[in-house]
Every structure is written in C-alpha cells, then in structure tokens.
Automatic annotation (TrEMBL):
UniProt keyword terms in alphabetical order: Hydrolase
Designated name of the protein: Citrulline utilization hydrolase CtlX
Superkingdom to which the source organism belongs: Bacteria
PANTHER family with a match to the protein in the record: AMIDINOTRANSFERASE
Pfam families per UniProt: DDAH_eukar
Gene3D superfamilies: L-arginine/glycine Amidinotransferase, Chain A
Organism: Tenacibaculum geojense
Keyword Lyase: no
GO molecular function per UniProt: hydrolase activity
NCBIfam families named among the record's database cross-references: citrull_CtlX
Amino acid sequence: MKQTTNTILMIRPVGFRMNEQTAVNNYYQKVLENVLPSTVNAKAQEEFDNYVEKLKSYGVNVIVVSDTVETDTPDSIFPNNWISFHQDGTVALYPMFAENRRLERREDILDILEEQGFLIENVVDYTSAEASDVFLEGTGSLLLDRENKKAYCALSPRADEELFIEFCEDFEYTPVVFTANQTVNGERKAIYHTNVMMCLAETFAVICLDCIDDKKERKNVVKQLKEDGKEVITITEDQVNNFAGNMLQVRGANDERFLVMSQAAYDCLSKDQINKIEKHCKIISSSLDVIEGCGGGSARCMMAEVFLPKA
C-alpha cells in the first residue's frame, strides 16, 4: 500500500464564503469585515488557481472540477471531507455535520474520474448516519496511515467514535482514538478535524502534542507513530492556529515527494522544524489567506487524494 499519491482531486469554488453552519464548531473561521461576498469568492478563486498551478509545476496530477452554481455550497473547496478513494477501487462517502455541506456530494465526480481512466469497484456509503446526527468527515476526521493500516482520529462533534470504528472494520485499519483540544476564550474545546493538528507522511508525522490533553492518549499516539518508524515533528498550538498541522505529502514528477502547506503555515514554522521536514522531502507552499480566513481550512483540506487503480 502506498501512503502518497500523484493524483489529487480539487473543486474550484463558485460561491465561496464563510459558512455560517460550520462556524459553530470550527473556531478558525473569521468574518472578513467590509469585504463583499463577490470579492471574497474572486480572491478565493485566485488563490485556488495559483495553488493548482504551483502543484502542477512540480508534476502533481491535479483533476480540477468546478463547483456548481445551482447549490449553495460555500465549502465545496474542501472535498476531502465527503469522499475518500482507496487502492482497491473503493470509494467512501461520509456523513457531514453541516446540512449545506451535504449538497457537496456529487455522483458526477465519480463519472469524471472514470472518464479519466480510474476504476471504481465499490462505494461504501456512511451518509445515512446523518439521520441520527452522527458524523465522520472523511480524511478531515480520519488520518490514514495506508502503509501500516492505522487510522488516527481525534473525536469531536464531527468525528463519532462508533462510526470511526465501523470504518476501521470495513477498511481493515487499526483505530487510534484520542481527543484533541484547542483553547477558545479560555476554554478547552474539541478541535473540529484531526487533520488541523496532525499530518501523516511516509517517514514522519507533524503533530501538535499539546492539543492532546490526556497524557495516556498522547503517549499512545507517539508510540504508534514511532512503532512505524516515523519521525515525530512537533508543532505548537499557536502554529496550529496558522494551519501548520494542515499539510499533505504528495508525489510530483519522477515520484519525488513534497509536503504541501499554505504560506501562512510555512511562515510560522521555525528554521529547525523546516530543516527536519526537508530531511524527508521538499516543501511546496502557496498563499491561501482568504480561503483559510473564511473557510477555516487550508492546503490539506483542499486536496482529495485519488488512490484508485487505473483501468
């Protein structure tokens, strides 16, 4: 099993804005004062296009699908929350916390991938859990160590433990469960997505251990990572607020590995942290200020990794 892929699915926004339905438990979102919605969307499109160009310039195969104007889907730019793709040709569909995010799930995206020569053998659909207010938001909630068959999940209103265990049974992953918190107005509250505070690469992991308040859980997460030979590179809660946990390792031309992150994430890292990462692979960074500010998500959230086999 491969941990990284050369093919990424990305959704170009048409009505991007701050999603009021997700803001209730995504504490990274901000309202940009005195900025027209059309300006916000235009800026997000510009950031998106520059980001895609940058990835392509390094040889990453990016499949861009445009969002539709018919649905009000302000967060469609983050497809990794509703879909994941697996090497045996399986696609998983996930239950989403915000009602307007459920409209992001589009069957035609599977058709587009098949047209590109990818094989889809099976669809595992967890979305009926929404009727019971149970959620598990794709690879935002689940961090998959595909090589070592371990799945890491920080429980939150958007990541239900029972459904996570069900996923692990279906896909044959060993579950690693913990709670990750952030300080909001002096209170510790669950971080909405695991991939905001942690990134799993082939030979290393970037993680904010300070977010895991329970010492036993923290020790277990470190033990699991080290068992699999990964170097643990720690970041601070302040760096998490700058999206330094929201990174993804991808393959570019000639199978070269890159760690992709936003410019804000890169700028908040120390020299030492950058050196540690660059021992493993090069870094690609791109400015995503408006997308991060309004969307409360960053570089990793925008990429749905395609691991499907080719026909």
